[in-house]
Amino acid sequence: MTWTKRLLKVNLTTKSIQIEEIKQSVLEKYIGGKGLGAYLLHQYVDPKIDPLSDKNPIIIATGPAQGTVPIAGRYSIITKSPHTGIFLDSHVGGYVGPELKFAGFDAIMILGKSEHPVYIEITNQSVHIKNADHLWGLSSLNAEDQIKENHDAKAKVIVIGPAGENLVHISTATSDYYRTAARGGIGMLFGSKKLKGISIRGTLELDVPDIGSLKELRKDINHRTKKSIDNGHLLPKIGSSWLLRIANERDQLPTLNYQYGEFEAFEKITGESLHEKFSSVTKRKPCYRCPLGCSYIINYEAEWTEGRMVQHPEYESIGLLGSNLGIDCLDHILQTNHTCNSLGLDTISTGSVISWFMEVGNKGLIPEKYKHEKIEFGDKSGIIQLISKIANQEGVGEILSQGVKRASEIFGNGTDRYAVHVKGLELPAWDPRGKLGLGLSYITSNVGGSHLRGWPATVDPPDRSMVPYIDSLIEQQDLKILKDSLIMCHFTHSIAPGLGISDTAKIFEVTTGVKTSVKEMREKAQRIWIASRLFNVKIWGEISPRQLGVLPHRLMYDPLPTGKAKGMTSFNNQQDLDESLTIFYNKRGCDFDGRPQYQEITNL
Predict the structure, then answer these.
(1) Which of 44, 338, 388, 570 is the most buried (most CB within 10 A)?
(2) Residue-level pLDDT at 598
(3) Nearest CA among 259, 429, 295 for reference residue 350
């Protein structure tokens, strides 16, 4: 089986290193990745702890698919979010996930805090804690270079940039230069532990139960990928940036802090425009053995690149750093995206908090102390300067670095009305006023405002009740949970036909040698959803999940003023939201308030 059954535990306070066995019964029930991380949180963590406590772990987990199945070059980081204070799982592409598996581990758990900067060096099952004083202060890009020089050029590296060192709430951990664990303040947690990074080199072979079945599975996924490419799917050609046109057409493209769902100048920043402008200097940079190959880097010549290739921006980055800031210039989006990558900032949260600051400034709601730092939508130089201020907590950047929820609470004066987040997590580049059921997806996500927790299979705006589509939402949530636990890439929805729950059952069987069924896989997904929800319930105490199941004022009460979804809000009315939550909670095994009726995670 491709489970190694090994958990690497590193304590940065005591400098102790232990390897523990993970019981197969745990792995069969929680699979790996998100599921395994949720289980480990329940076993090792008091949900009430301060997220920056030395007892809050960084859990880095793989799944059965890493290193064996195509479109599975990913890993998960699971913790109690220092940004939102609730359950967090963040998922990253590239090469780290397979490399960790080749090093012989299903997961790493990092506890404690170091007194001085360190990084962890892993070579197969040999693990060392190394001094990182010389790395502290370096950009994420330069730090990865240095760690590879110190360890092994073939090592796969996770690092933080200056934003994480400075304990910025919206900071990231970066790997393979351009892949980020972006949401929820992962970089802040690394920084609080004085952990600059982790270097992994693995050369061990995986124990595959049935190589013949694995070859057939690989053949099937590769064939379906080729079929999608032959059918002209744009994802392999221009990456996730192909979604910008679709978002604009559906009135879901955040524009000027979600005041609109369409951008007048959207043609200037589409994926097609990006590809056409830079195709001669663009290079494909796929994740580990991925036939989709949707990731690219660009050889862009400018002083700010410091001679490096820059990332071909993802759709979310274009939406939040482009239309949402009133920017219609691809060159500027490349620069802001690269700047965020180098400093270690989440492009979604950064774009969101800057757009909020721009709008409240226009409305005259900035406190007197910060009025001189006001910037307008479309102010290119002002945006670059503000990103640097956020990463270094300078001036108003000290407030904005805490994210839009905290910033609106500090500013007060009604500015929370324009703060777009769910449970403290800034929303991605998908306005729920343009898609039926997306609002309920955001509300019921256990991490807060994420676009990667399952959407209902709808294409229309919310012009009717969500109730008939709740089963579709739960099914898609289950599918995403299974992908995030195996771990498979979200973009397997773009192969032909797209990856379904029956496929996850087959992948589970082939990679683990354990028989299962679609019904059993749905049960595993439900178990993992409950585990994530129960962790939050223990944090919230007397506050019910229903009380927290709200959308930002703008998306719930302000109709879209233009476009296909003109006049739409995320739900028909409050009654529709209330009824949808009641039915959803019941189907998820929760009481009226959203608390799981099953109250314990079995100690297997």
Answers:
(1) 570
(2) 74
(3) 429
- 367 and 504: one domain? no
| pTM value surpassing 0.85 | yes
Cα dihedral 39/42/48/49 (nearest 10) = -80
- What pLDDT, on the 0 to 100 scale, is given for residue 604? 44
Do 379 and 409 have their domain in common? yes
Residues in the chain: 604
pLDDT tens digits for range 343-361: 999 999 999 999 999 999 9
Decide if 580 is inside a domain: yes
Rounded distance, CA 368 to CA 219, Å?
A: 63
- Domain, as residue range, for 119: 6-201
Cβ–Cβ under 8 Å, residues 253 and 429? yes
Cα of first residue to Cα of last residue in the chain, in angstroms, is 20
Instruction: Say yes or no: 443 and 419 in one domain.
Output: no
Q: Tell me, yes or no, whether 127 lies in a domain.
A: yes
Instruction: Identify each DSSP E strand in 25-98 by its residue range.
Output: 58-61, 75-80, 87-92
Paired tokens of 418 = 């324009």
Query: Which residues, in sequence order, are bridge partners of residue 310?
Result: 298
**What percent of the chain shows pLDDT beyond 70?**
99
* Together in a domain, 144 and 196: yes
Closest by CA position to 262, among listed 461, 91, 10: 461
